[in-house]
Amino acid sequence: MKKIWLIIGVGAFLTAAGVGGMKAWKLYRQYRIQEEHRERIENDKNIRLLGDTSKLYGEDGKLKIPVDFQEIQEENSDIYAWITIPGVTDAPIIQSSGNPRNSIFTEKLNSKDFSDPLTVIYGTNMEDGSLFGGLFQYRDRQFMEEHPRIYIYTSEKALVYRIFAAYRTDNRHLLKRFNRGKYEGNIKAFIKDILNQRYMDSTLDQDAPIDTNDYFLTLSTHDSEGEEYRYLVQAYLEESFT
Fold it and tell me: Residue 39: its pLDDT value, please?
């Protein structure tokens, strides 16, 4: 009789241990999935902040965008692109018909695939330096030389822009003023306007290899001098990865 109860007890113990083991394994697997997710996000961020375009392609030769758009669009479906300027900003881009607070966005006048000759990205000038609060560092020519590139990511491509100008200007609407760069004359006027900037804190590369065939990106934020001014950082498309 004792032997029977011993067998029953051992069986119950093993069953309990088995159930406990399964729970422990499930918890471990959940932990590993979370860790792998965190590591992937951190790895993507490191690639973006280092501007390491050599890691944009996997061993299979396919483009690997260092942003999980499927995941972030589940949280905000308006996000369609990502902007990274190492040492300045690393944030999502939305498209809006208004002027959303505390965000980086483009207007519906611009296409979402960055195929327009002129694209303007607006961003809030945050006091803590986030979003476009760090753009004012480009008043320093050395900073521009050390942080010359803007990286734009969409779900299908990565674009690298070279910064060649940063300056304060009035708050006229660039896309409307230069007709979105639809015609060669618009682009000529746009380039001339940039290179003619004369503000004391303007930072310009007069020798930048730009012409009417280039694609231009403008980052725009409120200037500290007041609402009637904007601070712009201008760049031209240097490289595209698809």
Answer: 76
